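REVIEWER CHECKLIST
Item 1: Sequence provided? yes
Item 2: Single chain? yes
Item 3: Sequence as submitted:
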Amino acid sequence: MEKLTLKSASGRRVISKKKGRNEIYARGPEKASSEDAGLTQKMLLQWVQQKEEEMSTSIRELYWDCDKAFWIEVNGEKIEFHEALAPLEFPQ
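Item 4: Structure as written out by the authors:
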C-alpha cells in the first residue's frame, strides 16, 4: 500500500508520491505510455473532485495498492474508486 498526495502544481491538480528526496507526479493522458494509465489518472482526479464537492471537504491523500485499487479516507470512512483501468504510471 502506498499513500499518494493530491495537490496543485503549476495551477493543475496532480497526484504525487515521494521518491527519495524528490516528488514525482503520476502521468496524465498526454504523457503516459499506456492510454489506460493516463485515463486512470484523469478519472481519479475527477472522482476526488466530485467527492470533495459531495462531502464539502478537502482531500489531500489517496491510497493505492500499487495495482488497480485506490481509495480515500474521509472522517474514518474508506471510500473506494472502482473504475481504474490500469495502475498509475510514474516517471522512473
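Item 5: Key structural point noted by reviewer: Strands lie at 2-9, 12-19, 22-25, 61-64, 70-74, 77-81.
Item 6: Recommendation: ____
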